[in-house]
């Protein structure tokens, strides 16, 4: 630590790795220290000691073996394994991982159990695998640094009271919340939910996590130039007339994380922070000199305003969402940010369609398509077609919606092969999103076979870290099962959504859940539907929907 400021977890790990390597320790020896100190499994430790994220490890892999490319998801699955939700690497992949990390295959598997003690020739004392320290009884396997964050935020240690309050130093753990990997955190949250059997304990832990991260997310505001901290008020600019490039850059850097935080922890937990950053961006836009700085500041304000509108949309405050979207569109036009204008028009189309106004949704989608053609961005063209599909589907225009699906697919293929950088707000849009929209269209116009095929592709390709999108896709899947009159699987899939959104459920997810449950009324006396009703009562009784 320096100057009294606590080191972040990443800084601690970087410093320790450098010290150990300078002392002549091998990567394997360094990883063993990391396993003990940071409670990582060996596959995670051997990556983290190099300072690599999962994406960086995948990049290094692809440089060595371009004909066998991997994404960060592959590394995530291997690192979670043998826990639920993980996949075991093949023998070939284990050998390549060992080469990548300069270790042996055995080093990668050092956390797996040993059964040598079952051999009658072995002494009665159980044998611990070489290089592995005995764990505490009941200890939870830690697959990543995200789980370290989760444990610290919850004030949890092996054997600690599950209801213990967070530690006092929790807010200081992440003074820079841009270091939080929310996709990884989402995987860890899901695993914890599966491991903790008692619903009330699960809800209590996730409630603490949501509150702790909401507090931590606002902490960097007090570190920005020109801000003061107050115990009773939100941070404010002490000199609103001053333009600070570093402050503007910080607002820009926070936007991707705020979006992902909303996907993982819910709109209600993220909205206050998004509005605070929006206020800062507005002051920077007013203070910026005319020229590129001003356009950039206005565009940042427009994007944060759109994000706030999106979060309001998910909380069910459609009036405020519409007002913020209108403001965001005006600002984006002022900044001459055509691709951002396209994106905002797309979200306006989505809002209108959701509110039962599909023809207004079609109108906004047409405007988005016109602006998308001026951007040269295949993502803009694809997403403009996507919202058109949903609006046309809601308006019962089968043929036109299928034509829009074809346009979307063509633009999507171009986007997937485009090597140029894309805007950060397109992070959510990929092939799984297309298949999710395809599922919605099939539910309206097609038979069960096409519905099931599209739903299966959407879930198979999904980023499980986006809990918001995954919840909707599971509900579409549940509806498909109901169409097949497979009520057991329909209820089981719906229960998964209820559990997944036990804390961060939004008004829109609740509306879909209610619609799904009403559709099951003909089978309300069956055991499956009764179990669904019990799950809804257990998970929603003490959790107000935001």
Q: If you had to describe this structure to a student in words, what would you say it looks like?
A:
It is built from 25 helices and two strands. The two termini are 39 Å apart. Helix 4 (54-64) packs across helix 5 (72-80) and helix 12 (245-265) packs parallel to helix 14 (292-315). 65% of the residues lie in helices and 1% in strands. A two-stranded antiparallel ribbon has the order 1-2. With 546 residues, it is mostly helical. Mean pLDDT is 79; it is low at 1-6, 123-144, 155-178, 219-238 and 542-546. The chain is globular and about 75 Å long.
Short description:
Helices cover 65% and strands 1% of the residues. The chain has 546 residues and is mainly alpha-helical. Strands 1-2 form a two-stranded antiparallel sheet.
Number of helices: 25
Low-confidence stretches: 1-6, 123-144, 155-178, 219-238, 542-546
Beta-strand share of residues: under 5%
**Spatial order of the strands in the main sheet?**
1-2
Helix content: 55-70%
Descriptive keywords:
mainly alpha, two-stranded antiparallel sheet, 1% strand, globular, disordered N terminus, disordered C terminus
Topology, element by element:
Elements: H1 9-22, H2 27-38, H3 42-48, H4 54-64, H5 72-80, H6 91-101, H7 105-108, H8 145-153, H9 170-173, H10 182-195, H11 199-218, E1 227-228, E2 236-237, H12 245-265, H13 267-287, H14 292-315, H15 318-334, H16 338-354, H17 358-375, H18 378-394, H19 398-417, H20 431-445, H21 448-460, H22 467-483, H23 487-500, H24 507-519, H25 527-540
Antiparallel strand pairs: 1-2
Helix pairs in contact: 2-3, 4-5, 8-10, 10-12, 11-13, 12-13, 12-14, 13-14, 14-15, 14-16, 15-16, 16-17, 16-18, 17-18, 18-19, 18-20, 19-20, 20-21, 20-22, 21-22, 22-23, 22-24, 23-25
